[in-house]
Design brief:
By secondary structure, the protein is an alpha+beta fold. The strands form 2 sheets. Strands 1, 3, 4, 5, 6, 7, 8, 9, 11 and 12 form a 10-stranded mixed beta sheet that branches. A two-stranded antiparallel sheet has the order 2-10. A hairpin with a 2-residue loop joins strand 7 and strand 8. Helix 8 runs parallel beside helix 11. The two termini are 25 Å apart.
């Protein structure tokens, strides 16, 4: 019966291959979308992993600098540092910026930190050119995805910054390239207003000159102390929201990308359903084209089971070919996407099982038609 299936496929080989390729492209997009979701999870943890800290201290009743706006006084880092059980603490700022590059704008996520502090968000192993920050002002470290090189000058706000280092693989939780500036520069960019705005505020009796603000304090805990207990102490006596590193990862990987994961999941299901329908239609069409031959086979006594096997084999072969084309297509284009796409073998194996099940389901339409075929049609022509 395998030979019969091969001969039938050989009769319509072009249509069979083209259809498999078309379905494969749809399934390839499924793999890409799953890869986008995997990439979002990894991107959300890049900065957290680079910091290697235990606690995030943010404005009271907020979810932190990535989920909600958070503002603290800069000296809060000193208050946290003298808390029992805290080893090191530093203040950080976070903001989105648009950097000018050759007539275009590059959207980045800027991290401000003290270059001479105890905690640095820059992983030295990721620096591929230049160096880290060594001055309080007008230096910038960028990621290679921005297109900037060491020595480039970047006008930003009221000043011009020099690119002194380039990193690789550093992105924000939203997938935007990371850049690093000193805390003082970051505070000026985020909290200082223009001269005109400052004069206007003074006329209104508003003092808007305080730029000694930060978005979060990060801290490490001494050995022998419980991270949760230290967090509870700060939460109780300092009147701030405190999240452990694990809780912050949960906020990023579950809360912030929750809606995106649902949307990707819905598109994935729709594409799998569409692929199943296409396979079912093609196999059904191929079955209709040979209904007279099937009627003859039934007339000479060929059992239905043998004919059904032929149809199921053809459907499974189309599903397997489509899966192979999907992997080829996905691996050819995934690196072209602007954000991280991670293709993992377990995801491909799960998709393969889904494709096999969908192929078997798709064969039912043609099988139903075969079961109803009348052998007398072979005589009637």
């Amino acid at each position: 019966m395998i030979n019969l299936a091969k001969k039938d496929i050989a009769h319509t080989l072009g249509k069979f291959i083209v259809t498999s390729m078309g379905v494969g492209m749809l399934l390839g997009i499924v793999l890409i979308m799953i890869g986008v979701y995997r990439g979002m999870i990894i991107d959300a943890q890049v900065l957290l992993n680079d910091l290697k800290i235990d606690l995030w201290v943010v404005q009271e009743n907020t979810l932190g600098p990535f989920a909600e706006p958070s503002r603290l006084h800069e000296d809060m880092k000193n208050t946290i540092k003298v808390t029992e059980g805290v080893a090191k603490s530093e203040g950080l700022t976070f903001q989105n910026l648009q950097l000018p590059l050759e007539g275009n704008e590059v959207r980045v996520f800027a991290v401000g930190f003290d270059p001479f502090g105890d905690i640095s968000p820059i992983d030295s192993t990721k620096i591929v050119a230049g160096r880290g920050l060594e001055r309080d002002h007008y230096e910038m470290v960028v990621t290679d995805k921005t297109g900037f090189k060491v020595g480039d000058k970047v006008p930003l706000g009221r000043d011009v910054y020099s690119v002194v280092g380039v990193t690789h693989g550093t992105v924000s939780s939203g997938g935007d390239p990371l850049v690093y500036v000193s805390l003082k520069d970051a505070q000026a960019l985020q909290f200082l207003y223009s001269n005109a705005r400052t004069r206007n505020d003074r006329e209104r009796g508003i003092n808007a000159l305080n730029s000694h603000m930060i978005n979060a304090v990060v801290a490490t805990v001494k050995e022998g102390y419980s991270v949760d207990e230290v967090a509870d102490t700060i939460r109780t006596w300092k009147h701030n929201s405190v999240y452990t590193a694990t809780e912050e990862k949960t906020l990023l990987t579950k809360n912030l990308i929750k809606m995106a994961s649902k949307q990707i999941g819905m598109f994935t299901v729709i594409l799998v359903v569409v692929s199943t329908i296409i396979i079912a239609l093609i196999i059904y069409t191929m079955t209709l084209e040979k209904m007279k031959e099937i009627s003859i086979m039934k007339l000479i006594g060929l059992p239905n089971s043998m004919i059904i096997k032929m149809i199921v084999q053809e459907t499974l072969l189309m599903g397997v070919l489509a899966f192979m084309f999907a992997n080829i297509f996905a691996h050819l284009i995934y690196s072209k996407f602007p954000k991280r796409v991670v293709l993992e073998t377990p995801d491909a194996l799960v998709l393969f099982v889904v494709v096999i099940l969908a192929s078997i389901l798709a064969s039912f339409v043609a099988v139903h038609k075969v079961m109803k075929a009348n052998p007398a049609e072979a005589i009637g022509g």
